[in-house]
Amino acid sequence: MTLVRNPFDAGGYSLAEMTQAINILPNLYTRLGQIGLFRFEGVSQRSVIIEQHEGILSLLPSVPLGGPATVGTREGRSMRSFALPWIPHDDVILPGDIQGAPALGVFDAADPLVEVMNRKLMLMRRKHAQTREYMEMNALRGIVKDGAGTTLYNYFTEFGLAQLSVDFLLGTAGTNVQGKVREVLRAVEDNLLGEAMSSVHALVSREFFDKLIAHPKTEEAYKFYAATGAQPLREDVRRNFPFAGILFEEYAGTVTLSTRTTERLVPANEGIAFPLGTMDTFTTYGGPANLLETANTIGLPLYARQHLDEKGRWIDLMTEASILPVNKRPRIAIRLHSSN
């Protein structure tokens, strides 16, 4: 969506207009977003109550004020309240950002103020998208971290669950790799717990992927796939490899944390396998903005607004998100690694 109105006119853009614009802007960063793994669900509060029963995490429903409450604390059940992390990010448009550009009203020239605002909103959108990708990748492993790399919640420790892990031993020539893949598939199937799936996908590090395709038990299969599944002189076949029921994809995503340190989304010699086509396993909950006009409304993925300095010296651009990604079946995402 392109912003086309001068923000100095009639008070500028409203919260609704700015929010609509930034949510429609294309997301060019995230792999999980492309896969569509985590669906977004807005909630009206700034926290959620999650109940665990037999390995499944579920959100408790809201009820009318004074209505009958849901019943918890039954045998085998536990409940926790989780605050939705608040992620604000601001920027500013200064006179120097548009100085020297064509003046407003020049015939057949784009409004420089609008162009600057679009560019800054796009950059802010990408930063929020990168943050959401980082949070969702960690949520796959049952952990929620913020943009500083600090662990906010560990669903395994909160609910007394244990993560499943399979060591592929790719440094051993005699390893039965197909057997390892079957172990992963069966672990996923055993932990569906009433959920459906269409296939199993694995995002793996460069090191894991290189060892996988070079292993004596898989090398010929990869050569055949590279020769027939794609045109090797035209396409990059390095990125994925379907083998024995799992599509292994090399994933080299890296983020820069707010501490200015970098962190790989998939650690070296590791990977994460998870089902696709689920109905209600991977959800990112979003709460309303920290504003009076959005209180008790259903949350959106991202909010944006602008404020003109009373003396006309700058325009503040303010964005925020309150999101909490949840893997409702934490044991369904299997940690892959190779210890040699």
Structural features, described:
This protein is of the alpha+beta class and 340 residues long. The protein has one domain (9-64, 73-337): phage-related protein like domain (phage-related protein like fold, Alpha-Beta Complex), CATH 3.90.1690.10. It is 25% helix and 28% strand. The chain has helices at residues 15-24, 31-35, 95-98, 112-140, 155-159, 177-190, 206-214, 219-228, and strands at residues 39-42, 47-53, 56-59, 77-83, 86-93, 143-145, 151-154, 165-167, 199-204, 240-243, 246-250, 254-256, 262-264, 270-276, 282-286, 303-308, 315-327, 334-337. The strands form five sheets. The protein has a six-stranded mixed beta sheet. Strands 1, 5, 15, 16 and 17 form a five-stranded mixed beta sheet that branches. Strands 3-2-4 form a three-stranded antiparallel beta sheet, with no helix packed on it. Residues 72-76 and 103-109 have low confidence and may be disordered.
List keywords for this structure.
five-stranded mixed sheet, globular, six-stranded mixed sheet, alpha+beta, phage-related protein like fold, 8 helices, about 30% strand, about 350 residues, single chain
Q: Would you spell out the secondary-structure blueprint of this structure?
A:
Elements: H1 15-24, H2 31-35, E1 39-42, E2 47-53, E3 56-59, E4 77-83, E5 86-93, H3 95-98, H4 112-140, E6 143-145, E7 151-154, H5 155-159, E8 165-167, H6 177-190, E9 199-204, H7 206-214, H8 219-228, E10 240-243, E11 246-250, E12 254-256, E13 262-264, E14 270-276, E15 282-286, E16 303-308, E17 315-327, E18 334-337
Parallel strand pairs: 1-15, 8-18, 9-11
Antiparallel strand pairs: 2-3, 2-4, 5-17, 6-7, 9-14, 10-11, 12-13, 14-18, 15-17, 16-17
